[in-house]
Automatic annotation (TrEMBL):
Subcellular location(s) of the protein: Cell inner membrane; Cell membrane
Full protein name: Cell division protein FtsL
Lineage: Bacteria, Pseudomonadati, Pseudomonadota, Gammaproteobacteria, Chromatiales
GO CC terms: cell division site; plasma membrane
InterPro entries (UniProt xref): Cell_div_FtsL (IPR011922)
Keyword Transmembrane helix: yes
Primary location class: membrane
One GO biological process term: FtsZ-dependent cytokinesis
Length: 96
């Protein structure tokens, strides 16, 4: 083998070595990032479960019957009697 062939062969061997190191490093980073992705997906799923639970709780707490019951008991509110209602009609005077 000539000297130039040896230099070319050595250069190719170094290039293959660096490529192999690059592949190993990339595979390592892929595994790290995949593990992080799985953790994030687990967090997302837990947040989705919590969000759905909160939506159900909100729906249960905001039913009309419950709001009316709390208004009557805690705030002393009541529906107005017929005699307590005053109807005011707008005749349209004073409008351009």
């Amino acid at each position: 083998m000539t000297r130039s062939n040896l230099v070319t062969l050595a250069g190719l061997a170094v290039a293959v070595l660096f490529a192999a190191i690059g592949v190993v490093h990339t595979k390592y980073l892929t595994r790290i990032h995949f593990a992080q992705l799985q953790d994030l997906r687990g967090q997302r799923d837990a947040i989705d479960v919590e969000w759905n639970r909160l939506r159900l709780e909100e729906a249960a707490l905001s039913t009309h019957a419950r709001v009316e019951r709390k208004a009557r008991r805690e705030l002393g509110m009541f529906a107005p009697r017929v005699g307590d209602v005053l109807l005011i009609e707008d005749t349209g005077h004073g409008h351009p």
